[in-house]
Amino acid sequence: MNSKTNVYHVAYYTADKSISIFFWGCNFSCTGCISKLDLFDYHLKDTDKKSKKVVFLDYQEVIKRVEKLEPKRVVFRGWEPSLDPDLPKLAESFHDELKTWNLLTTNGFIIPSLNDMDEIEISIKAYSDDIHRDYTGKSNKRILDNFTNVYEMDVKLRAETILIPNYINHQEIGKIARFISKVDPAIPLRIDGYVPIPGTPWRSPTHEEMDMAVDETRKYLEDVSYLDGNVSFKGEVMEIV
């Protein structure tokens, strides 16, 4: 009998035939974690999620649910995928059997086997260690070291961070961009606007604040993008699990 994986939710995007696989559990305790607001894909209708329960799948169940959709791209996402020992095996199966492009999104504290990952996105919450510790409960030293080490591997690397006004502000994100530029200024960076979580003291950034962060990072990096919650979405999102 197969043991359960950490996979509890799978969503399919019709626009680009991609799959998002959600893994339970995290080694960080981020104060503003979006998963505290929504456990499931945020593109799904709230009415579809009200009665939805968390159910963990075993390895074969994940493969069976995904393979019939013949996806072109698979995104392994959080909470934190790297904690699941079955992650490398799942990525290998999708590579070998479905010929997918595999993307791992991770906080970078643990780097699993990347043999069957085509791309990795590492989230750097803050460059200043005191801010990183305050927000996540962990030092960022290991993450910054891992980011540099992954760059030396045969896998495409990108970065992500979050803009929180009066906390992780445009100056702090500029420090992240400067660090990345010392590895390679061509590494893409995406800045996500903070979505308020009940019980936290922060608000969403304004358009002007997002522009300031983008302008600051473009002093150092060639490829900067952002998400502020107002991006139009193409196609349909289907709940698979």
Keywords, please?
241 residues, alpha/beta, TIM Barrel, 7 helices, 9 strands
What is the strand and helix layout of this fold?
Elements: E1 7-13, E2 18-23, H1 46-49, H2 59-67, E3 73-77, H3 87-98, E4 101-106, E5 119-123, H4 129-136, H5 141-151, E6 156-163, H6 170-183, E7 189-193, H7 207-217, E8 224-227, E9 237-239
Parallel strand pairs: 2-3, 3-4, 4-5, 5-6, 6-7, 7-8
Antiparallel strand pairs: 1-2, 1-9
Helix pairs in contact: 2-3, 6-7
Strand share of the residues? 15-25%
Order of helices and strands: EEHHEHEEHHEHEHEE
Per CATH, the class reads Alpha Beta
The figure for the number of domains is 1
SS element count, helices: 7
- What CATH calls the topology is TIM Barrel
Structural class estimated from helices and strands: alpha/beta
Strand arrangement in the largest pleated sheet: 8-7-6-5-4-3-2-1-9
The CATH architecture name reads: Alpha-Beta Barrel
Averaging pLDDT over every residue, what do you get? 92
The whole-angstrom Rg is 18 Å
CATH homologous superfamily heading: Aldolase class I
Main sheet summary: 9 strands, mixed
- What's the shape? globular
Describe this structure in words.
This protein has 241 residues and is of the alpha/beta class. The chain has one domain (7-239): TIM Barrel (Alpha-Beta Barrel). The protein has helices at 46-49, 59-67, 87-98, 129-136, 141-151, 170-183, 207-217; strands at 7-13, 18-23, 73-77, 101-106, 119-123, 156-163, 189-193, 224-227, 237-239. It has a nine-stranded mixed beta sheet, with helices on one face. Helix 6 (170-183) runs parallel beside helix 7. It is globular, with a radius of gyration of 18 Å. The model has no long low-confidence stretch (mean pLDDT 92).
